[in-house]
# Entry
Amino acid sequence: METRIAEIASGIYRLSTFVPQIAPPAGFTFNQFLVLGDEPLLFHAGLRRMFPLVREAVARLVPPERLRWIGFGHYEADESGAVNEWLAMAPHAEAAHGHTGCLVSLNDMADRTPRMLADGEVIDLGAGRRLRWIDTPHIPHGWDAGVLFEEASGTLLCGDLFTQIGDGPALTEADVVGPAIAAEDLFGFSSLNPGMGATIRRLAALSPRTLALMHGPSFAGDGAAALRALADDYDRRFQAAMN
Ligand SMILES: [Fe+2]
Ligand SMILES: [Fe+2]
# Structure
């Protein structure tokens, strides 16, 4: 296994590890995003067992001990598994997560007290980099779920939203909604609930220009349209499940 690096928006790097054994023959990617700034932030701590690979990839961009923030969309092995490895390596690093996730998991599981982010709260990385935390409870799964929006580049670090199988390019302008619908059919990873459409449309209101998928390529284009189409599909699924 190797971890490949690509800049998917100005100062935002995708670190991608492809695992052919998951969902064969297509395989599956695990991506982290490094946002540069005076206080560099890594979105997704990654799996504990992938930590050496991801650390080596980070080290090609910044000294890993300089990392200041470790964020993730929800508490789960591929999102947060290596959080304590990062905290041990980077003496000034703090985990940053939403209120729910800190209260139900991270205050106990993280080796240092995490920064608790309110819905809409901004992490200022300096150098013009501001990341806004947005609560998306249970979407696509996890009570503590949320996303980060990088305002300068219009990049939505959207975690498991738009998950797709396969090993595509680092950045694509191709459709990401169809592959996400196919992956939902395959895995059933989302927690269908009546708030899904409204919550995902709230993200569309940010009009992101880049969608940074945790599992799949990053998407450059009309992020709002993609989010609305995804919201429509989840509304359709929810209605179908209720009938
Ligand atoms: Fe997840
Ligand atoms: Fe994930």
